[in-house]
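Researcher: Structure prediction, please.
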Amino acid sequence: MGRLIHFEIHVDDMERAKKFYGEVFGWTFEDWSDYAGMPYWGAVTGDAKEPGINGALMQRQGASPQPGQAVNGYACTMGVGDYDATEAKILRLGGQVALPKYALPGMAWQGYYMDTEGNLFGIHQPDEHAK
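Model: Predicted structure follows.
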């Protein structure tokens, strides 16, 4: 045991966050608020037959992260098929670059962004020719 099976992204504006993650990554959402006793939307991140996990967007219970502060939690990275197209969606929908695209030589392209709620996340496009 000990395998990661669920994630939660804390958000200030649920509708804004659902729009951001839905449009950037194609996630769909299910209202699980009655179970959680607070605004809580299950995030379906892809086909259950593919590797990966589902998670949720939950109403933030404290102060939002401040720009420039150290990461205080996990940074999740999403696999993408087209790094540049995904970055364009992120920026168009109000996300910001935290660490620009860089090569993991012989493996992939990687970069980090801030979502509309101030949370850090990464995107990763496998590419054996990255350098």
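Model: The CA atoms of residues 99 and 112 lie 5 Å apart.
Researcher: Thanks, that helps.
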